[in-house]
């Protein structure tokens, strides 16, 4: 059976009349004649098959059907108005400033950008790939709208912890387990301090009484990956952004998980920024599932 479809203009007239407690005022507000409003109400009752208003003295009151319709009509109108507002905003020029910790920027950013520009073709993106410390400073000073970072406990009223991922020792793919001389310090390839992963690596080795040395420091994740691939040492990272020619290695202390969080520059975000935040969260959920599935195979 073909279901009837509500006319949103009719529902808007009905809701406006109830809210003004006067359909004459509703007619004036909606730039319609009172006869046109009366015709719309008649059409609505015919479509429903029951009266939505009844006389009470010199005025009108909602019937039980009218009360039920009022609540749901408001929801339909809010959804309709929200859709048009979102479509309008997607065509409005704006700038969104996004900061990413480098692990996320390597392989995560391109997919986010592709999805986002399809929804907001006129929005300009300013992307900053940087270390946690720099991103926190930019968020706190208003220099970024959003920042995706490792969760190191930085205090902010506008932070949302999105998840966590396992930390791993990383080496060349053709060396899945570590055969090292127990008398020689373990060569490490790390960021310079301060770095949450550097601290986790050295603390774990110290607790396990494994001697270590810093073989190389790099200001970028790309530099770390290159040095590990060259056999200069091992590093501590996560599977996020892990290149195919490197892999998790065994034989070193087990480490805990590392959280990641999305920081906002303000409590209330512009719609375009809010949509980007939602896309980031969705993409991270997809990636977390992919990593978990891959690790369990």
UniProtKB/TrEMBL annotation:
Q: So what family is this one in? A: Belongs to the LysR transcriptional regulatory family.
Native organism: Pseudomonas lini
Name recorded for this polypeptide: DNA-binding transcriptional regulator, LysR family
The UniProt keywords, alphabetically, are:
DNA-binding, Transcription, Transcription regulation
**Where does the HTH lysR-type domain start and stop, copy by copy?**
6-63
PANTHER family reported for this sequence = HTH-TYPE TRANSCRIPTIONAL REGULATOR LRHA-RELATED (PTHR30579:SF7), TRANSCRIPTIONAL REGULATOR (PTHR30579)
A Pfam family of the record is: HTH_1
Q: Which PROSITE patterns match?
A: HTH_LYSR
Per its record, what are the GO molecular function terms? DNA binding; DNA-binding transcription factor activity
Bilayer-crossing residues are none
